[in-house]
Model the fold of this input.
Amino acid sequence: MMEMWHAGLGWPTATTLLAFSFASSFITIAFGIGGGAVMLAVLATLLPAAAIIPVHGLVQLGSNAGRAAIMTRYMRFDLLGPFAIGALIGIMLGGSLVVQLEAGWIQMGVGLFILWSVASKPPAFLRRSGVITGVFSSFLTMFFGGTGPFVATYVRAQDLERHAHVATHAMFMTLQHLLKTVAFGILGFAFTFWAGLIVLLIVAGILGTLAGRVMLARIDERRFRIVLNVILILLALRLIYAGASDIYFASAAPAPTGGGN
Done:
């Protein structure tokens, strides 16, 4: 009976995941971004490959929904419609593909985009297009998972006050992860096996959100912007390094030799 709460991973591994779920939610609400990528990296280390993206998506759904619920009054609902249309299109396109995209190139592309968005303002068509942001980020999330920084570049371009930034980003990510979870369910992923652990991870994430909200209320606007940009740059560099490493090792791997008589 107790095994259902750690999905067969063992309590040491499950406890590590719970600690990082708390920390990742704390980071996201306190600094605006970064927690989802941290959680993805930990899950990628400790979970079977086939479970990483679906489990990450459902955990992030719970975490972002909790964050959105306690910050509803700060949300910019006028930005939701275009993003929702784009997200639905992106999820449908990503879910319809049976060929796995090479993760390395996706990681490098997203990382370079984030660096560019920090160094210079996105062009008008991207700053004003929630549809484009919804399509590309939602398409990528089906294969890569951690597209929170991508969505954050659009939210950042809206020049929102820090509470509105965090709340609006949580609103977008809640919708995106909800659509992704539905898509993986339709594709046949067995969420029930992971249900107990996912519930514990979501609860830990909500607790991290409540703790991080205290820091968000105390940090000043200028410091928030500086920390947000630093986190975005570090995440981008991590993505670029990881992507380049994947591409290098994939190209360096020896080709399979033919067998048989």
Summary: The radius of gyration is 18 Å.
